[in-house]
Structures are given as structure tokens and as C-alpha cells.
Design goal:
heterotrimer, A alpha/beta (711), B alpha+beta (345), C alpha/beta (278), A: alpha/beta, N-terminal domain of TfIIb, Rossmann fold, Dimethylsulfoxide Reductase, domain 2, seven-stranded mixed beta sheet, 26 strands, 32% helix, 17% strand, B: 345 residues, alpha+beta, 2 domains, 34% helix, globular, binds flavin-adenine dinucleotide, binds iron/sulfur cluster, binds FE2/S2 (inorganic) cluster
């Protein structure tokens, strides 16, 4: 038996673990004891990450659609067809008729090669990935405020913090090992403040839980800042020396007294004051947020408000402080870093910037487009408009993960050509003309970047199943067939190219990652030790910018017809669209079916009991799920996880997006809920006494001698 | 009968190489990252006997996390027994004690053929603990840091040499075959051994009296409110059970091996999960976290002693490392003791 | 190897299948002559590639030639079983578990829904013995179902009645006019059964809530705890005391049960329901 050190493929914590291998099959997993994130622990997904790798459902050969059916094909054939179709569409409609989707599940190397493929081979900037759906507002919002859109501090600082403010993150379930560090901090005396409509596990540990209405985060944060300013808790010298535009911002915030905010958010004014005092009065205060902040039409505004808050109190640029967006997917940070985004190359170097473009043009010897491409959500609309004719999707399942699924499905059905590169047959693959089997994290080398910017290695532990090939290798083959030489013999060669072209990854090379547990970017050179916390002494953009933010209500308010506020998210046992976890027996068994969380008071009113089937309806569609009656959600709010294809909640969600980041508002839409009464017609039978029953001839089954006598 | 020998540390690699020529040699090995993992030893000098408790416990070599039981089709059934001879080198006394408990469970009344196939071909070479981890509490349980029996061989580090005790014929045969490297101990070695044991015992940071805790629980002195305060911290990760050298639960599933054949696989499972006990009627006996947490501790502290005469815990301290919510045997036991003391006052 | 492998099933074939209600099928399975069992025991049933589940034996020991199993579709494996047809092969191992204790007393059977399945062999066995020995012992069967369509073994119940059993059938809800049984919960009808509680033994199987209510009522009416017998359902993966799924109150239900008396349930504090059974 061998144990191969690698990185967990599920969430952004990026725990270190070992895969146990015997005779080319994976027999188990164990945690790394010294890893700075997990210290010998794993969450349930980590402990079970071995199971899906060699699952019988894996895609093992390329498939080509013929008529309505898919048939097996050779690699030569499938690659040739893909290259030919892409070339044809590029020649007929121009490069911008092609869209490319990268993947937050794939490695930095895979995504870098894909973005090079999009830009240098196809010639388009239409490349994006699911970060659009989770943290594009972070990337945009923080770039403006600080100049860099990543988690500012490190996970192993958490335990020494004095105040932990968590807003819109179900940390113990979605980033369990970060949750663990928070719990440890609490045990060491830290105060925990949680702002979340749901009573999550971390909220149960909090000293203060503010259950604001979903979508009112700006009002909440503005009120907190209002208190900080009016009570003189601001750090004046920091504001003066390190930031700009404070005066403008201050004027805006003064309108949001706690009483005003109470009316909007329904959080008692006194709680807002308490939160402000707690957060501002300690030096070591860390602010964490996640999709509860970002997935709104005001996602960027929410992020800006968070940035304003940390600058106001100087909780940034020091250890145990900072603004810490928790990135969901294992490599969503990395996929953004290496440029799987429509407007930037790797390291957030803008395509519109001539100097950056020149650098990449020289490296890749192709002219590159200066026009930022379409985002994920825009691509779907562009397909409907006929502007995009072909899509190349690497390791994503937008049919389940994107808002308003029906709209997405209709778009995909219209495509001239769709190539899907994945490890399992997904719902998206149903629309594909060519399906290319890729390898999992256990069958290839590469790197993932976790939420704290730690670039870590994954290592090949077993041979790929069937004919599956690493993602970057597949893309290189297509590039070559399209006449562009792309020859990397191994993943580390790609990393070398990333390092050359990307200043923040300048010193990150595989051999350095092999010793220890990775490096945190920015890491500018071979002797740079990496950066545990950002914005020390100076913000990336120079001065930190205060940006005034006004409260805007959610796109779809509740009304009489749709009285519930529907919010969506993940459950602990599952991950995203379920292609991997729902093939993992332990995870699937824990949560075999989709449920909707509903408050007991609402449930009582609607005569819904635990486990009853209910129909949840919005203006987009309706699904049937079972009710989970729980006080985790407050009255008026219902919650559905999005992992279940048979009850795809994204049939319901709205595709209203943030005007800047184009992130959809997954967290709020208006919905109705009603009990589904099976078997209408069934009437409860009348209860009859024995003798009444006798009169009606019900005595069949009682032997005459046994009948009680009529007294 | 135990016989003692002396093995000079310089000769360890030589001896390990000879063991490796006949057995799959599993030993604590230092990874490039600095972790020490129990894995097949490739280069003899990489073995690291001075590290902390290994994760997960060596039970994975007797009850693997995932193992195929058999393959079956219309044609018949083919069992998949692992018959490779193995040496587990450098495991700790607590782990060895745990394996002895597993033996009573798996090889008792009804025998588990898969466990037996592995176990009967596994040689256990323990290394006594000179330096217990801060999480260890085997001392009060008699499951470590030194054992008198149960091992094939037990090594004690005496600085530049090991004192090697034999505990079985198999063990003895691995030593007596090499009289040129295993020499007779001198009186001074005995003194050093005694000294080493004494020193080790004095280093334990935790003293946990599980017997007392058991009595408290059985006397009804531990309230549900207490268990609730423990359970609320559970992340439902399963790490406690996966890592515990005494926990044995498994799940059994079928996978299609081809369109005609199926294979039956068993994999580690844990009672910390709701679905573990869900019945076809939809009833979940241990639905609330508190019931699951309680069940784990009750099983180890009350029912194991009833059935097997020993606690379902050997004090290895792994649950303290693997639990993100610090719900571990020592912490909970100490809290129970503390609370019942507080009540008495 | 000298050890016999307790996890290996043997292959056999289905002689006959009958749909006895919606989603419920009755299988007759050929078994070797040396496959002996007692009422109350169960077998582990496998379908290639689908998995293995515990199913109670419902044929009468020593009387039925074939082994009979009655399976309701609830999930993955049970659907795979119910998709099988006559002559298909099926894999078995067992029998496992502690059978029903039998004493010379009057017997009261209380069944809820599919819970009649494990009790059926005992009813048949008792009636068979009653005929053979000419005993006057009373056999009462109270059987509750959700609605008339879900009543299993209707014809057989009529035969039991002919053989001298006292039958009380009831449904929770009734939407057909032709239903001739009672309505309401089984426990509502104790009065009619005319039972000498102190000198009878009750055998109970059904949903947890029903078991719980019935046990409580019988106990209150003076039936001694050791004469109140039930068979408990637990999640079972191995059937042989190794996997730990069925562990409850210090007992492995597969080995030490599934049959328990109320006395034992109280003694060991076995609480397999969401709320406690006793
Ligand atoms: C002693 C005993 C006797 C039984 N006798 C019968 C019988 O005669 N007829 C009959 O129809 N059913 C019987 N059952 C129930 C039967 O075992 C379950 O219906 C079956 O295991 C469900 O498996 P599945 O794969 O179809 O369901 P799954 O898809 O696995 O899940 C459906 C539901 O069944 C539960 N379940 C899964 N596996 C088991 C298991 N091994 N034990 C208990 N629940 C489980 C799941 O938690 C879930 O709630 C008996 C169970 C026991 C313990
Ligand atoms: S916390 Fe995240 S990275 Fe760590 S084991 Fe769990 S899923 Fe994997
Ligand atoms: S309960 Fe904890 S300390 Fe005891 S044996 Fe198991 S893992 Fe070790
Ligand atoms: S290790 Fe801790 S958190 Fe994980 S299941 Fe066990 S008790 Fe719960
Ligand atoms: S079913 Fe496995 S122990 Fe009881």
C-alpha cells in the first residue's frame, strides 16, 4: 500500500490529505497531521473523496452524438471533430461566436491552458467559469477598494483572533475546517458575531446572531458603520494615512441610523449597536463572508460595504484581521488567478491594457483581442440571440448550477456545437455533440489554490480510468489540430509558463510546492516565501478606496402570490450539482433527497408536516420537494439546496444579475409554497362501534362464537 | 515466554530489509511534507519511529477503509481474500491493544473471514512509547505505553540500541534467525529499560479514569443537557470513528463490475451519521446529534466492557486530533468527571 | 481457509412471483432441503450489482416447501428485487436472528401493514399445530392497514378464520364501499378481541408508533411484559453482528433480536424509535 500526499478536491479550505493506493485502486483517505488548514482533521466529504474516482459511471471513452444518441468514438475522431467544428464556426461567424467555460474544479494548469486556448487559438475573450456565480462580486468589489480581490488573511490566524464577524457564510458546513478554527478561537475567548437569516451551526456558537432579511446586507453594514462613526470608534489615523474618499462615504452612511436599518433588516437596533461596538473595539477582528453577500443583484455593493467596514476600523493589513471572502470550490481562487475570466489574463492583468496584452502576445506569438469577452450569464443570452454558436465546457454543469435552468437548457439546445469535457455524464452533457472523458484529481498532477491563496499540489495516485485524459492534455491536442503548437509534457511545464507571465505567481513552481504545504501568493520570486496576509503597509492599489453604497432592495420582492423569500445554497453532505458526491455512498445516504426548510410557524399555517411533499413555485417554474420543518430558517424564508437534479432549484431562481459583476441573485427570489395532497378523494372512514358495524354487515372476519353479546 | 535481545540501531536497516524480502513491510515513514504516515516502506532510512500517533490507526491494514468482499455473477462467486504476508512495524502499544480488542470482536463467536485472512498473516512489531503525545492517556487503561504481551515483538528505544522483546513464536523466529545482530542483554540494559519506562510514565499530561466515568454515566449522573452541550459541536465528519483503532462499523454496498457481474464492497462507516440507522419505514433511531454522540460514548464506555470486558477505547488520543469540534474521549471524560465533582459540592 | 465466510451468499432461483398489493410482491424461492429456519428469522437477499437487504421469512417452517419472502419497494435494492421474475436467480444467506418464542398460551397477533409478513409463518404454524393436536387454544389476529388496497393476504385471512382463528381487520381510511372490515387503529378494537390478557402472549409487528402504542396498551391491560413480543426493524447491513448498523441499547438487533419481549426492551433500554419505545 502506498499513500500519496495530495489536496482535497471538494471545497476552498484546501485540506491536505493522503490517498491510499493498493494495486492501482484507491482504498482510502487520511488527513495530513501537519497541514496548516486541517491539522489532522477532515470533513465528511474529505474523508470520502476516494470513492467517486473509480466509480463505474465514469466516462471512459469519448462520445459523439449521432442523431439523438451518443456513440463511442476514438480520441482521434472526437478531437478531429471538435477541432473541425470549432474552426468552422470560427471561420464562418468569427472567434467571438465561440464561448469557453473553465472550471473551478480543475487545476490551475488546466485553466491556464484553456484560457490560452480561448485567447490565442480561438482568438476570443469569451471565457468564464462558475466564479461568476459565486465570487465575481468579490473580485470586482475588492479590486476597486483594495486592488486585489482575494481573502486577505490566512486560516491559521483565525484561532488567535479576538472577534470573528461572519456574514452570509454557513462556515461550519461549507468551509468546515475554517469553522473548526473559528470554534477554536471561541474556545480561546474570541467573540463571534453572525449575520445570517438562517440559524446555522456557527450561529449557534455566536455571541450575537443578527437574522436580517436576505438581501438587506448593505443596510445592515451601513448601520453598523453608522454606529462606529457616531460613537467615535473609527481609526482616524488609518483613514488619513491609508485611505481616500472617506468624506463622501461618511455622508452616505450617516443616513443609516440603526433605527432606519431595523425597519429594513428587521434586526433590532440595539443588536446593530452591539455588533458595531464588539467589532470595532478589538484590534484583532476578522470579517468573513461568503455567498450570502455575493449572490445578490447588489453583490458588488455588499462587498464594497464589507471593505468600507474593515478600513473604517483599520482591521486590515495586520495578522488576525482582514476581509476574508471564503471561496467555495477547491480551485475557484486559482481558476480566477490564472485568467479563466473574460476581462483578464492570469494574475488579473487586464486584456484591455496594452502592456499586458503585448506581453502575452509576445509569449504566445498571436495577436490577442482587446475587448473583454462575455460572462457566463451573458453567454447564455448571447446563444439565444444567435451571437454564440458554439460552446466548449470543461468540467462544469451549468444546466443545474446556473439560475433559471429552463432558459439555459433552451440555449444549449440551440447551439451549433457543444463540447463537454467531464468525468461523469452530467445533465449538461446531454446537450453535447462531443463528450471528452477527463481525469479526476487522483489521476493527474497539478495545483489548486485554496481560499487563503495557498497554491498546493495534487498528485497522480492511480492510472486514469479507461481512456480518460488530463484536461490540459485534451485541450493541447485540440489546439494542435487547430494549427497552434501546444506541447507540454507535464503539468509543471505549464506552471513554469504561469510563473513567467504572472507576477503574483512568479516564484511558484512545482518543486517548491513539493516540500511543505504550498505557497501563498503573491510570491514574486524564487526566494520569496509567499504572503500570509495582504495589504501590509500599503494596499495593492495604493490607497484604500471608500466607496459610498446605498441600499437597493432585491430584484423580486415578495407579494401576495409569492409570499415567501426563497434562498438557495449548499448542504453539508453535498457539493454543487452532485455529480461526485451523489455517487459517494456515505454522502448520498445522508441526504438522499432534496428538502425545503420551512419555519414551524409557516408550516403550521400551511398544514405542512415534516416529510410532507410540497410544491415550491416561482415565476420561473415549480418543483416538488419534501418539507423539513426547522427553526433554522425564520418565518417567511424558505431554503432549498441546489444539488439535486430531480428537484433542481435553479428552475426557480431568478436570472437578475448584479450590473457590474453579472452575478445572479441566487439568494433571493419570491416563491410560494403549498402542500401537495396525494390521493385526493380519500376520505377518512367513519369510526364505527362493533355493533353499528354489525348492522352494516361488517362482521365478516369475526367468528360468530367470538362475537361479544349484545347486552 | 518473553525473551529479550539487544539490537544495535545501526543494524535496524539491515533487519528491516530482510523482513521486507518476505513480507510487505509497513512502517511509519516520513513524507516530504514532514508528516509521518504508516505506509509501505521503500527506503529503510525513511522510517520514523519518533513521531506522534499515526493517522489513521493501523486498523486500516486489517479492516481497510474500502475493500472488496467478493465478485459474483450468474457463473458463480469469487471471494477476494487478501493473503499477502505483512509486517506492521513500529506501531504503538495502544494500537496493538486495540488490535487485540478487534480480535475478540472479529474472531470471536462468528469469524470474519476477511479480517482473519489478513490478521493471521500479519506480524505485529510494536515500539514502546518513550515520549507519549500530549493527547495520550493509555497509562491509566493498561493499554500502553509498554506492553507485557500481545505483540509478536516489542521494541524499546534505549538511545543507541533497541531492547527487543519476543511475545510469540512468530516474533521469536524473526529474531533468532539473526543471532549476529540480536545479542543478549546485559544488566545495564535492564537498568536502562527500567529508567526509560519510568521516565515515559512521568510524561503523561492526561490522566483519565474511564472506570469512574462509566460509573457516573450508569448512575445517571450525566444529564442530557451535558450531552447536548457536547453534541452541538459535532461537525458530523466521522473522523472520530474513522480514526479510532477500536471502532469497527462498516457499510456494505454493491457496485456493478460489468453488465453481468457485481462486486460487493465494504467501507468504513460511522454511527455519527443520521443515515447510519435510518430504516425503511423512514424512522431514524438516532436522529438528533445528541443521540449519536451519546451512543458513541455509551458504546465505548458501557457496552464494550459488558460484552468484551474492556473499554472500547485504548487511550490513543486520536479522536482529540481528528475531531474539529474537540469532542474526544479524554476531553469529554474529564468534563464528566469535573461536572459530577461540581455537583457533589 | 478453515473459516467459512459468513458474508458469502448462495445462488438459488425464484419459483414463483405474485403481486399481492401495489409495490408488494410475494416470492417463492427454491431452497435446498437442509435450509431450515424458524418463524421470526430473516434472510439477507442479494441481487447482483444492486446490493443486499434483510427480508423476513414469511413461509411456514416445516410446512412450506419453498421459502417465501414478501417485499415492498422502498428504494434501490427492494426495487431490484421486485423487478425479478420467475426463474431468475436470487442470492441468499441466512437464516439469521432469534425466532419467536412459543409457549402454550393463547396467542394474540397484532400486525400493522407490511408487519404481517414476519408474523404470518407463526400464525400458520400455530393454526397448523392446533389442527394437528386438536388444541382449543385461541388464536386472534388483529390486522391494521392504511386502506383496503394495502391489505395483504386477504384470502389467507379468510382461511385462517375457517381454521378457527379470530380475525379483526381494520383500515385507517377507506374509500371503497365494499370494505367489510373495521376502521380505525388496531388498538381501538381490543375490546372486540375478547382477550384474557393475563394468560395470553402477544406478537406485534408494524410501524414504530403502532408497536409503541400497542405495547403500552397491552401492558396497561395487565399482560406481563415478557409475554409482549415484538420484532424490531433496524438498519441492517451484515445480519451477523459485525457491521454495527443495528446496534441499539448495547444489543445488536440482528443477532440478539430482531425478536424482543417488552421485558427485554425495558431492561436493555432499547430505543429504536425517534422517541422511546417504552
Ligand atoms: C429484520 C428485518 C426484516 C425485514 N423484512 C422485510 C420484509 O419482509 N419485507 C420488506 O419489504 N422489507 C423488510 N425489511 C425492510 C427492508 O430491509 C428494507 O426495505 C430494505 O433494506 C430497503 O433497501 P433499499 O435498498 O430498497 O432501500 P434504500 O434505497 O437503501 O433506502 C430506502 C430506505 O430504506 C432504509 N434502508 C436501507 N437499507 C436498509 C437496511 N439494510 N435495513 C433497514 N432499512 C434500510 C434506508 O435508510 C432508507 O430509509 C426488513 C428489515 C429488517 C431489518
Ligand atoms: S473542509 Fe473542504 S477541503 Fe477540507 S476535507 Fe472538507 S471538503 Fe475537503
Ligand atoms: S476513543 Fe479516542 S482515544 Fe479512545 S481509542 Fe478511540 S480514538 Fe483513541
Ligand atoms: S470527529 Fe468530532 S465532529 Fe467529527 S463526527 Fe466525531 S464527534 Fe463529530
Ligand atoms: S446487521 Fe450488522 S451488526 Fe447487525
Amino acid at each position: 500500500m502506498n499513500k500519496i500526499s495530495t489536496t482535497c478536491p471538494w471545497c476552498g479550505c484546501g485540506c491536505g490529505l493522503y490517498l491510499h493506493v493498493e494495486n492501482n485502486s484507491i482504498t482510502g483517505v487520511s488527513p495530513s497531521r501537519n497541514h496548516p488548514v486541517n491539522h489532522g482533521t477532515l470533513c465528511v466529504k474529505g474523508w470520502n473523496c476516494h470513492e467517486f474516482v473509480q466509480h463505474p459511471d465514469r466516462l471512459t471513452t469519448p462520445l459523439i452524438k449521432e442523431g439523438a444518441a451518443l456513440r463511442r468514438a476514438t480520441w482521434e475522431e472526437a478531437l478531429a471533430k471538435t477541432a473541425a467544428k470549432l474552426s468552422e464556426i470560427k471561420n464562418t461567424y468569427g472567434p467571438d461566436a465561440i464561448g469557453i467555460l473553465g472550471s473551478a474544479k480543475c487545476t490551475n494548469e488546466d485553466n491556464f491552458v484553456l484560457m490560452k486556448f480561448a485567447r490565442a487559438v480561438i482568438g476570443t475573450n469569451n471565457i468564464d467559469h462558475c466564479a461568476r456565480l459565486c465570487h465575481s462580486s468579490t473580485v470586482g468589489g475588492l479590486a476597486a477598494a483594495f486592488g486585489s480581490g482575494a481573502m486577505t488573511n490566512s486560516i491559521d490566524e483565525i484561532r488567535d483572533a479576538r472577534v470573528i464577524f461572519v456574514i452570509g457564510s454557513n462556515t461550519t458546513e461549507q468551509h468546515p475546517m475554517i469553522g473548526m478554527h473559528m470554534l477554536e478561537a471561541r474556545d480561546r475567548g474570541a467573540m463571534i458575531i453572525v449575520a445570517d437569516p438562517r440559524r446555522t451551526q456557527i450561529a449557534q456558537f455566536s455571541h450575537l446572531h443578527m437574522r436580517h432579511r436576505s438581501g438587506t446586507d448593505v443596510a445592515l453594514l451601513n448601520a453598523i458603520m453608522n454606529v462606529i462613526i457616531t460613537e467615535g470608534l473609527v481609526d482616524v489615523s488609518f483613514i488619513r494615512q491609508r485611505t481616500e474618499n472617506f468624506d463622501d462615504f461618511e455622508k452616505g452612511v450617516l443616513a443609516y441610523s440603526p433605527e432606519v436599518a431595523e425597519r429594513i433588516t428587521s434586526v433590532p437596533a440595539e443588536d446593530l449597536r452591539k455588533a458595531a461596538r464588539l467589532y470595532a473595539s478589538e484590534k484583532r477582528s476578522m470579517l468573513f463572508y461568503s455567498m450570502g453577500i455575493t449572490q445578490h443583484i447588489t453583490g458588488v455593493d455588499n462587498v464594497r460595504s464589507c471593505a468600507n467596514l474593515v478600513m473604517l476600523t483599520a482591521h486590515i493589513g495586520q495578522p488576525m484581521t482582514g476581509l476574508n471572502p471564503l471561496r467555495g470550490q477547491n480551485n475557484v481562487q486559482g481558476a480566477c488567478d490564472v485568467g479563466a475570466l473574460p476581462d483578464v489574463f492570469s494574475g488579473y492583468q487586464k486584456v484591455a491594457d496594452p502592456a499586458s496584452r503585448k506581453k502575452f502576445e509576445m509569449a504566445w506569438s498571436r495577436p490577442l483581442s482587446a475587448v473583454p469577452g462575455l460572462t457566463l450569464t451573458e453567454m447564455v443570452d448571447a446563444i439565444h440571440e444567435g451571437k454564440i454558436r458554439a460552446l466548449y465546457i470543461m468540467g462544469e454543469n451549468p444546466v443545474i448550477s446556473d439560475p433559471d435552468s429552463a432558459h439555459v437548457r433552451a440555449a444549449f439546445a440551440k447551439l451549433d456545437f457543444l463540447a463537454v469535457q467531464d468525468i461523469f455524464p452530467t445533465d449538461t452533457a446531454e446537450y453535447a455533440h462531443v463528450i471528452l472523458p477527463a481525469t479526476t484529481f487522483a489521476e493527474k498532477d497539478g495545483t489548486y489554490t485554496n481560499t487563503e491563496r495557498r497554491v498546493q499540489k495534487i498528485r497522480k495516485a492511480v492510472q486514469p480510468v479507461g481512456d480518460s485524459r488530463p484536461d490540459y492534455d485534451i485541450i493541447c491536442s485540440i489546439a494542435r489540430l487547430m494549427g497552434y503548437p501546444m506541447d507540454y509534457r507535464a503539468a509543471h511545464e505549464i506552471m513554469e509558463e504561469i510563473a513567467i507571465l504572472t507576477p503574483s505567481y512568479g516564484g511558484i513552481l512545482h518543486h517548491r510546492l513539493d516540500a511543505g504545504f504550498g505557497l501563498q501568493w503573491p510570491c514574486f520570486g524564487m526566494d520569496h516565501p509567499g504572503t500570509p496576509y495582504l495589504h501590509r503597509k500599503k494596499f495593492t492599489r495604493g490607497m484604500g478606496a471608500f466607496i459610498p453604497v446605498e441600499f437597493i432592495p432585491p430584484a423580486e420582492p415578495t407579494d401576495d402570490e409569492y409570499p415567501f423569500l426563497l434562498t438557495t445554497g449548499r448542504s453539508y453532505f453535498h457539493y454543487h450539482t452532485g455529480t461526485m458526491c451523489r455517487r459517494t455512498i456515505t454522502l448520498e445516504r445522508e441526504e438522499p433527497e432534496c428538502t425545503v426548510e420551512i419555519n414551524p410557524a409557516d408550516a403550521k399555517r400551511l398544514e405542512v408536516r415534516r416529510g410532507d411533499p410540497v410544491r415550491v413555485k416561482t415565476r420561473r417554474g415549480s418543483i416538488e420537494v419534501k418539507a423539513r420543518v426547522t427553526t433554522v430558517v425564520p418565518e417567511g424564508i424558505i431554503f432549498i439546496p441546489f444539488h439535486f437534479r430531480e428537484a433542481a432549484v435553479n428552475l426557480l431562481t431568478i436570472n437578475a444579475v448584479d450590473p457590474n459583476a453579472k452575478i445572479p441573485e441566487f439568494k433571493v427570489c419570491a416563491a410560494s409554497l403549498e402542500a401537495v395532497r396525494k390521493k385526493p378523494g380519500t376520505r377518512p372512514a367513519p369510526r364505527l362501534s362493533y355493533h353499528e358495524g354489525m348492522k352494516q354487515g361488517l362482521d365478516l372476519y369475526i367468528p360468530p362464537e367470538e362475537r361479544p353479546s349484545e347486552e | 515466554m518473553n525473551t529479550a535481545y539487544i539490537l544495535n540501531k545501526n543494524h535496524l536497516s539491515f533487519w528491516l530489509r530482510t523482513l521486507k524480502s518476505t513480507h510487505e513491510l509497513i512502517a511509519p515513514t516520513r513524507d516530504v511534507s514532514g508528516d509521518i504516515v504508516l505506509t509501505e516502506l521503500q527506503r529503510m532510512h525513511e522510517t520514523a519511529l519518533d513521531g506522534p500517533a499515526l493517522m489513521p490507526s493501523p486498523k486500516e491494514f486489517l479492516l481497510p477503509q474500502m475493500e472488496q468482499l467478493f465478485c459474483y455473477s450468474e457463473e458463480g462467486i469469487e471471494e477476494a481474500l487478501n493473503k499477502r504476508p505483512r509486517v506492521l512495524f513500529g506501531i504503538r502499544p495502544c494500537d496493538l491493544s486495540a488490535i487485540r480488542i478487534l480480535d475478540t470482536f472479529y474472531l470471536g463467536k462468528t469469524k470474519d473471514a476477511y479480517y482473519e485472512a489478513r490478521r493471521s498473516r500479519t506480524v505485529l512489531i510494536a515500539i514502546a512509547c518513550n515520549r507519549p503525545d500530549p493527547t495520550c492517556f493509555c497509562l491509566g487503561l493498561g493499554t500502553g505505553p509498554f506492553l507485557k504481551s500481545g505483540f509478536d515483538l516489542q521494541l524499546t528505544d534505549l538511545g543507541d540500541r533497541f531492547l527487543v522483546e519476543t511475545g510469540s513464536e512468530t516474533g521469536a523466529s524473526l529474531v533468532t534467525a539473526y543471532p549476529h545482530i540480536f545479542t543478549e542483554p546485559k544488566p545495564a540494559d535492564g537498568d536502562d529499560l527500567y529508567e526509560t519506562r519510568l521516565a515515559s510514565q512521568s510524561q503523561f499530561e492526561k490522566r483519565v479514569n474511564l472506570e469512574q466515568v462509566r460509573k457516573h454515566i450508569q448512575a445517571g449522573a450525566v444529564s442530557d443537557a451535558f450531552w447536548e452541550s457536547v453534541a452541538v459541536r459535532c461537525f458530523e465528519c466521522g473522523g472520530c470513528v474513522y480514526n479510532c483503532p477500536v471502532c469497527t462499523c462498516f457499510n456494505v454496498i454493491d457496485r456493478a463490475a460489468s453488465s453481468e457481474a457485481g462486486k460487493r464492497v465494504r467501507l468504513w462507516d460511522t454511527c455519527m451519521f443520521k443515515g447510519f440507522t435510518r430504516t425503511a419505514g423512514g424512522v431514524i433511531p438516532a436522529e438528533a446529534k445528541i443521540n449519536r454522540t451519546k451512543r458513541w460514548f455509551h458504546h465505548k464506555l458501557i457496552h464494550w466492557p459488558e460484552q468484551f470486558g474492556a473499554f472500547g477505547c485504548v487511550g490513543c488520543g486520536r479522536c482529540a486530533i481528528s475531531c474539529p469540534g474537540t469532542i474526544d474521549m479524554a476531553t469529554v471524560a474529564l468534563r464528566i468527571k469535573g461536572e459530577s465533582k461540581a455537583e457533589e459540592k | 481457509m478453515t473459516t467459512t465466510n459468513i458474508y458469502l451468499p448462495f445462488k438459488t432461483s425464484i419459483a414463483n412471483v405474485k403481486e399481492v398489493a401495489k409495490d408488494v410482491k410475494l416470492f417463492s424461492i427454491s431452497v435446498p432441503a437442509d435450509f431450515t429456519y424458524q418463524a421470526g428469522q430473516f434472510v439477507m437477499v442479494s441481487v447482483i450489482g444492486a446490493g443486499e437487504v434483510p427480508i423476513s421469512i414469511t413461509s411456514t417452517p416445516g410446512v412450506s416447501k419453498d421459502l417465501e419472502l414478501c417485499v415492498r419497494t422502498v428504494g434501490h435494492v427492494s426495487s431490484a428485487i421486485n423487478a425479478l421474475a420467475a426463474n431468475d436467480s436470487i442470492w441468499l444467506r441466512g437464516p439469521y436472528g432469534r425466532p419467536f418464542p412459543i409457549n402454550g398460551q393463547d396467542a394474540l397477533f397484532i400486525c400493522g401493514g407490511i408487519g404481517i409478513v414476519p408474523l404470518r409463518p407463526l400464525i400458520n404454524q400455530m393454526l397448523h399445530n392446533r389442527a394437528a393436536t386438536g388444541s382449543r387454544k385461541k388464536v386472534t389476529v388483529m390486522y391494521g392497514s392504511r386502506n383496503p388496497a394495502e391489505v395483504l393476504f386477504m384470502d389467507e385471512a379468510a382461511r385462517w378464520q375457517e381454521q378457527g382463528a379470530h380475525i379483526v381487520m381494520t383500515v385507517d381510511t377507506c374509500d371503497i364501499e365494499s370494505w367489510k372490515g373495521c376502521t380505525g387503529l388496531v388498538t381501538d378494537h381490543f375490546a372486540k378481541a375478547n382477550i384474557d390478557y393475563r394468560n395470553s402472549t402477544a406478537y406485534i409487528c408494524g410501524p414504530h408508533v403502532m408497536i409503541k402504542a400497542t405495547m403500552r396498551d397491552l401492558s396497561m391491560m395487565g399482560m406481563p411484559d415478557d409475554h409482549i413480543i415484538t420484532t424490531l426493524e433496524a438498519h441492517m447491513k451484515c445480519g451477523v453482528g459485525k457491521c454495527g448498523h443495528c446496534y441499539c441499547g448495547g444489543k445488536l438487533i440482528c443477532e440478539e433480536g430482531p425478536v424482543f419481549s417488552l421485558e427485554e426492551i425495558k431492561k436493555y433500554n432499547i430505543k429504536p424509535g425517534v422517541d422511546d419505545l417504552v
